[in-house]
Fold this sequence. Notes:
By secondary structure, the chain is of the alpha/beta class. It contains 11 helices and 14 strands.
Amino acid sequence: MSASTVTLSAKSESFPIEGRFTISRGSKTKVDVVIVEINDGEHTGRGECVPYARYGESIDSVIELIMSLEDDVKNGLDRESLQRKLPSGAARNALDCAFWDLESKQKNTRAYDLAGIADMKTLTTAYTLSLETPEKMRESAEKNAHRPLLKLKLGGEGDIQRVQAVRIGAPNSRLIVDANEGWTAESYQKLVPRLHELGVEMIEQPFPAGDDEILKTLDRPIALCADESCHDRESLKDIIGKYDMINIKLDKTGGLTEALALKEEAEANGLSIMVGCMLATSLAMAPAILVAQDTAIVDLDGPLLLASDRENALRFDESELFPPEPELWG
């Protein structure tokens, strides 16, 4: 790319949520994302990220970090050198995915071909039920009882009643739950046997990241998945022995490049893979579909929870998710 023609831009956009979305850390009615564009004078590559306060990120700080590399991008910064330039996180994710998109357009090929993925399959995604009262979660479960996999947001007090209510509302759906760091060792020991009886197949991040060493001593009759405890390959040394699987999110890994590498190394260490997302649009989900090929659990339902999505959005058939078209990404 000629330095004189390359431009970098980053801006924030908001998309309304269908109703309200609640986890143990709070509720929201819209999602705020950052979209990055890299233009070489002929082609434009796009990427989207979700700054996350849990990791000390904000819309303004992420845009500022991205635009601090404006001269570097004009002077030939590429995807490989980006990995050393920025730490894992939302800013690098948007830039990394924009580089993938741009390269696929420049070479007139698909991003999955660049990644060495021979056969892109459709995926079955989990559908997330927001943290609510047991009664409201049962209503949500009844509306979505046709979906094969439901993910429940939990928060501690009343969690058994929530899962019981969902099980009644969706008796044939597989269930996984996400505690979002909301449990204690005591609540874990009380909850897990009951959840096991209710057929829950996986528990995501029961304890706060950095406060999960006790998992080495607790029984794990249900598979445990590291979310907030897992960011990139550096995280694995603190995960092995505590968890059975990891949740790979591009906003945590800092993009598709590191996500693919993390998947490979985690599998080599005997960990199963879940691919998840922040609440975002189809543009954020599209590169994650590459990582989600042949994984144990796919949780890329972000667009299904929005009241409106981008143009050329991903195609969903209920919970079946199709690979992106090039007009969207890659």
